[in-house]
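Record 1 of the preview.
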Amino acid sequence: METVILSAVIILMIGIGMFWIHLLNAQHDARIEAYRFSAPLPRPPGLPDDTGRRAHHTDADR
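->
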């Protein structure tokens, strides 16, 4: 009998945790959706157009 009650309590706690995580994720998604991201900063003068990692390698075609 104790095993059945313990199993039910564990399953109930897992269900409550899943519901709570679902609510927190929904709040987080709503907060991300409401936030307005700014435009990217302009490139500083004097930098080449391609500053990626592959542009710095001389043997990029290997």
